[in-house]
Amino acid sequence: MSHSAVFAVHALLPEGWARDVRLEVDDAGQLTRVEADAGPDGAQRLTGPVIPGVPNLHSHAFQRAMAGLGERASGAGDSFWTWREVMYRFLDRLTPEQVEAIAAQLYVEMLKAGYTAVGEFHYLHHDPEGRPYADPAEMSRRVVVAARASGIGITLLPVLYGYGGFGGQPAGAGQRRFLNTPGGLRDIAEAIRRDHAGNGQVAVGLAPHSLRAVTAETLGEALDGLDEAAPVHLHIAEQQKEVEDCIAWSGRRPVEWLTDHFEPDGRWCLVHATHITEDETRAIADSGAVAGLCPTTEANLGDGLFPAGDFLEQGGRFGIGSDSHISVSPIEELRWLEYGQRLRHLSRNLLVEQAENASVGASLIRGAFDGGAQALGRPIGRLAAGCRADLLVLDPENPSLFGRSGDALLDALIFAGNTNPVRDVMVGGRWVVEAGHHGDEDAIFARYKAAVSELTG
Amino acid sequence: MSHSAVFAVHALLPEGWARDVRLEVDDAGQLTRVEADAGPDGAQRLTGPVIPGVPNLHSHAFQRAMAGLGERASGAGDSFWTWREVMYRFLDRLTPEQVEAIAAQLYVEMLKAGYTAVGEFHYLHHDPEGRPYADPAEMSRRVVVAARASGIGITLLPVLYGYGGFGGQPAGAGQRRFLNTPGGLRDIAEAIRRDHAGNGQVAVGLAPHSLRAVTAETLGEALDGLDEAAPVHLHIAEQQKEVEDCIAWSGRRPVEWLTDHFEPDGRWCLVHATHITEDETRAIADSGAVAGLCPTTEANLGDGLFPAGDFLEQGGRFGIGSDSHISVSPIEELRWLEYGQRLRHLSRNLLVEQAENASVGASLIRGAFDGGAQALGRPIGRLAAGCRADLLVLDPENPSLFGRSGDALLDALIFAGNTNPVRDVMVGGRWVVEAGHHGDEDAIFARYKAAVSELTG
User: Fold this and answer.
1) ipTM for this model
2) Is the pTM of this model over 0.95?
C-alpha cells in the first residue's frame, strides 16, 4: 500500500501543540505515522496551523432545508411542540431524491465549517404515506450516498421509533414515516454495512429515538442483536414536558428510568440530557456515556441549558452536534456551550480545569474531539497513527487568528470573530475543501436549490 | 446637486417589504426619494434583496485587538473583573497609530458584516502615563480618521471618566489614560465637530462612562453645556457587584439613582442595563431612552441576560452593539438576544408581538434599526427620503437565504446558518463593500497586523 505525507509547522497532537509535524497517510485514508520535529522532505507543506477535524455527533440532515421557517410567533405561546408541527408538515412531502440533495448540501457546509464526520440520527424511513419503500433501506442509502459524495465520514444511526409516547402509546399520523421495528432496523443496518464493507468512512450504529418512542422490550430487542462496537444514541430529557410525562408514566425521570432498565456505557450517547438532577448528572458521568450537546438547537428550541460545568467536574464526556442545522458551525456550538454556562452562573471561563492560565478554547475543542470520536465509534478526533487522516488547516491570515499560536490560537478560534477560519479540509487522506471551496459545491448546491424550490414553491 | 439612483427588486422600507424600489441619492450621501413599484431607468440594478445598514451603537474599538486573549481560567474563580485586568495591561502600551490601525480594521469588519454606523464609546484619551497628548483630541481624531478611511458612519462619544468608584472615589493607575473633565471633553467634541463640519457621516455625543466614574456634579456639568441633539450614552447595571456597590453607596440601584438625579429621555442610551428590577425596566421603557444591548459581550463577560421580553412588552426601545468585539456580527447579536430569552423562559419566539405568524427575525432587526438610529443621533436605519443612503444588498445565493423572501428572509437571515449573507454595502451613497470585499481591506489589514505584532510580540 502506498503512502503520502503532509507537513505542518504547527499541529495539535493528542499530547498538545507540536512543531514541524510530518503526517503519513495510507491509501485507505488512515494515518500510519505522526512525527513531531521532523523534516518536510517529500511531504506536502500545509499553509497554516493544523488541528483534527471536528466530529458532529448529532444530525437530522433533512431539517437543514427548513432552517429559519419556524421563527414565527403562533399567537398563543410558542414552544418546541409548535416547531415540531412545522417539521411534521415539511415531512409530508420529502422524497428520497430531495433528502439526498439536502443532505449533500448540508454535508458540504459541515466540511467547510470544520466538521469531518457526522452522526446521522436517521428517522425518515418510509414514504409520505408511511409505507416502506421497495427497498426498505432507500432513505438510509440516500443519506450515506450524500455523505460519500461530499466526502464527510458518517456513522449512520438508523432510528428505532415505534410509539407516540411513554409506555407504548400509539404513534400519530405525523410520525408514520418514522415507524420501524428492531428487525426492520437490523435489515437497514445490514444493507448499509454490506454496501460499504471495508470503507473506513462509513460506520453504522443504532438510535432508539427517545424513551417516548420505544418500550423496554423493543429497546432490549434492538440492543440484543447489536454489534458490540456499534454506538447507541438516543434523545433524552430535552424538554421539561418530556420529564414530566416520564414521571407521570413511570414515577422516574428519563435518565433514572434508563439506568434502572439498561446499563448505558461508553458506546452510548445521551443526546441533550438537558433536564437532569445532580444524581442523574453523576450517573451519566460515571457511566462513561457521552453527553451529546447541541447548544444552538437547544437554544433555538427553548430547551434549556445542560449542566455542563457540574458534568465536566465529575469527569463527564461530551461532544457536539448541529442537530436541526439552524446553525452549522462547531465554533458557534462550543462558544455558546461556554457562554450558556457563563450566563447561568454569572461568571467566566467555566468549562475548563480551574488552573492558572488554563485555556477554555483548548479545553472545549479537545472535549469535542474526544467525546465526538467516542460517540461516533470511529478512529477520529486525533492526529495519531491508527486514526483517520481527518484534519483542518486553519487560515493564519484570518483576522481573528492573526498573531495567535498554541492554545491562544484555540481561544481565538472558539471565541473571536465571525468569519470562517477553516481554509483546507482533509478527510480520510483526501482534500475535500481547499482554500475554502469544496470541489463539487456548485453541482451540489444546484441540486439543493432544485429540492428547496420544489418543497417551498 | 447631482443625483444617482439604485434599483432593487425587493427592498425593506419603513412600511414593510416593497417591490421594484428606486432609491435616489444626492452627492451628500442622503436619500432624496424612495419609490416603490417604480422603473429601473438609469438606475444601478442591485443584485439581491436590500435592507438598511445596521447601526452598531456600542464600540470600544481598541478592544478588537485583544479579542480571545481573556479566555483563560485564573485558577481562583474568574469574572468580569479579571477580564478588566487583562484589558488594563493591554492599555499600558497602545499608541495613537496602533489605535487608528486597530479601529480601521474593526470598522472594515463591521462594514462587511452589515454594520454601517458605529457609536464609538471612546475612553482612551491620554498617553500611557496618563498625560494628555500635545493635541488633547489626538486619540479621538485617530478613531474618526479610521472611520472615515473605512467609510463607516460614526457617532463619537467621548467618555467622561473622573473617578474609580461610586461617590467620587479616586481612580486607579489602570484608569489613568481615561481621566477627563467636562471641560476637557467639550474641547474634544468641539475639535471633532470643527474637523468634520457639514459631514453627514460624523456626529458627536457624550458618554459618562458609568455611575462609578462620575458624580452628580460632574455629570450635571457635562450635560449642561451639551447640544440638545447630542446623544448621551452610559454603561449601567452591567454587573451585580456594580449594583451592590451602588446600593451600598447611595441606598439606590443604578437605574434608580440615575432617574432620581437626572431625566433620561430619548437622546439617552443606557448600555447593558442587565440587572434591573421590574420598576427599573418600566422606568427605562417609559423614559424613551434606548437600551444598548450587547449580547455577545454580555455573554462573554458573564454579565447576565437583560429582561428583553418584559422591556419590549412595555414599549421599550433597544439597539445592539458589538462592544468588546469578541464578535462582530449583527446576526450573532440578534440571534442570541432572542436565544437568551428562550433559554431564560424555556419557550420560543419571544421578542416579537405575540400575533399569529409574526416574524421574530423582522421584529429583531427592525428594533435594531430604529433603536440604533435613535441612539446614534443620525438619520439612519431607514430607507426613506431624508435619511442617509446606508444599505445592504443580501446575497440571494447564500445557502441559508435561498428560496426565502419577505419576512421569511429576515427569519433566515437572523437565525439560519453561519456564512456572511451581506454581499454589497453602501454607506452615505458610496459603495464600500462589493461582492464581500472592501476596497482598502488589504492595506488596512496590513497596518492592523503590524500593530498586533508590536502589541503581542
Assistant:
1) 0.97
2) yes
